[in-house]
Amino acid sequence: MPFPNSPNIVIFLLKVTKEREKYQITNLRKAIGIARCLTREEWKASVETKVNIDYKVSINAFLYQNEKFVMIDEHFYKIERTFVGGQFVELYLSETRLSKEDFYGWHNYE
Fold first, then answer.
1. Is residue 89 part of a domain?
2. Count of domains observed in the chain
3. Which of 26, 74, 88, 89 could share a disulfide with 58, CB 3.0–4.6 Å?
4. What is the pLDDT of residues 79-88, one digit of tens each?
């Protein structure tokens, strides 16, 4: 069993610009974070605001630079909101229907 607050997920932070029907990747960085469960209050706020939050991931605050998307295991998530608490920033993510084909610029990072 892993220790509490141990890094347990690898994510890719994507900074993008919108170009017609696709996104252009301007920066992609790998980060290691801590996947956490939503609290009852966070889930309730998600339902009330009609923003479906699927994941909550905490990473070191200095790693986050206002990226809009996260890739986890070939699935793309939109960063709906953030919360900075000390040295960590919590990313609240909602799953999208996007795939790698919806982004330009992968060849720069593979």
1. yes
2. 1
3. 88
4. 999 999 888 9
